Amino acid sequence: MSFFIILFTLLAGIMLSAQSSINGTFSKKAGTLESAFLTFATGTLFLILIILFFGQGDVLALLHAPKWQLSAVLFGVGYLFLTVLSVPIIGVTAANISTVIGQLIAGMVIDHFGWFGGVEIPMDPKRWLALVCMMLALYFVYKGNTAQTS
Question: What residue numbers bound the domain in which 78 lies?
């Protein structure tokens, strides 16, 4: 089963890169906010249908969730908006690597302190090395991008 989860996650990453690229190009014509709006409006329509047929039937349970948990919505909106804004400027690869580095940093801090009910996994030299390698990858990809556009 974990093989399929990894495969699904890889597929999601491929879809995310394609979506970032398409939205970045679309935003040049329609605007950044408009591109983000189209993505969220379309996603909302699809989710309404999915909820109707496969949901657990208690949409109002959202009203009883702790307010801090609802803040995740703002992070999703911020992510999409910033990605649409950055892809036309730095490219899909640099934007995705930057996103992954941001996720690594946030994930390592969250793991280290066990925030949000997660398991505490302390920072260690291997984790720092992984972060340094990702930063190097971003540096080389970004430098390769700027060399191509110069």
Answer: 2-145
